[in-house]
């Protein structure tokens, strides 16, 4: 009986000292806007809170010394946490003016008198499509249609189609240029089909995160009427 009692106490001690883990959280924020990375836990005393970004220490707060510190190389000028809310079990990290370079994995580690808590937040930053541009040009004796978008992230997937459908290979040429701020300019060009007049050329751009699809079209006529673009 004494052996069984000893093992029961040992297993109970392991269970009580195990860290509290929460499922991974995926947060998507818009470029240049403030972003909240959640971390909530069971309130206790003597809290120590640490936030890591890509395994590098970003923030640390120690209740015993009332000391708060940021790593100067890890978003120190744009990240903040409220020590007052930590007492209520809220160690959410606020990231101001987020941009694509902030993407990645963040981890929140909390130690209190009630135990340990760990949370992982996967941050995505999106600069959504606001408007598509569609225009025609004439180069080297053939007519070309250009579909473009500026300042987006991540770069969208571009597809072309015609109405009515054609069995010819459209063969668009799509280029993506990354700017220093991490945003993209996307330019997709399609040569007009000479053998099939009176077609509607349709350019579709879909966000890599699947949040939205934008479509714009151009009807081939003598005046090349441009149709309205729409978001789905």
UniProtKB/TrEMBL annotation:
Q: Does the keyword Signal apply?
A: yes
Annotated InterPro entries: Ig-like_dom, Ig-like_dom_sf, Ig-like_fold, Ig_V-set, T-cell_Activation_Regulation
Task: Name the predominant localization.
Answer: membrane
- Entries under Pfam families matching the protein: V-set (PF07686)
Q: Is Disulfide bond a UniProt keyword of this protein?
A: yes
Q: Where is the Ig-like domain?
A: 23-124, 128-219
Bilayer topology reads: Single-pass type I membrane protein
**Signal peptide from the UniProt entry:** 1-19
Q: Which PROSITE patterns match?
A: IG_LIKE
Entry keywords, A to Z: Cell membrane, Disulfide bond, Glycoprotein, Immunoglobulin domain, Membrane, Receptor, Signal, Transmembrane, Transmembrane helix
**What is the organism of origin for this protein?**
Ameca splendens
Compartmental location:
Cell membrane
Q: What is the name of this protein?
A: Ig-like domain-containing protein
């Amino acid at each position: 009986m004494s052996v069984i009692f000893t093992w029961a106490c040992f297993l109970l001690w392991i269970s009580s000292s195990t860290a509290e883990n929460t499922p991974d959280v995926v947060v998507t924020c818009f470029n240049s806007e403030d972003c909240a990375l959640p971390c909530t836990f069971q309130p206790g005393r003597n809290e120590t809170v640490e936030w890591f970004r890509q395994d590098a220490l970003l923030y640390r707060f120690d209740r015993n010394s009332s000391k708060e510190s940021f790593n100067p190389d890890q978003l120190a000028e744009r990240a903040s946490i409220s020590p007052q809310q930590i007492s209520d079990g809220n160690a959410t990290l606020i990231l101001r003016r987020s941009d694509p370079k902030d993407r990645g994995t963040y981890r929140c580690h909390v130690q209190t008198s009630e135990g340990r808590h760990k949370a992982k937040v996967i941050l995505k930053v999106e600069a959504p499509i606001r408007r598509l541009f569609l225009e025609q040009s004439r180069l080297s004796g053939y007519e070309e249609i250009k579909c473009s978008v500026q300042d987006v992230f991540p770069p969208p997937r571009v597809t072309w189609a015609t109405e009515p459908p054609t069995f010819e290979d459209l063969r668009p040429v799509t280029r993506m240029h990354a700017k220093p701020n991490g945003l993209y300019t996307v330019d997709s060009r399609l040569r007009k089909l000479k053998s099939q007049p009176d077609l509607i050329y349709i350019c579709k751009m879909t966000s890599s995160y699947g949040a939205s699809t934008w479509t714009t079209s151009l009807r081939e006529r003598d005046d090349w009427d441009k149709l309205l673009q729409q978001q789905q």
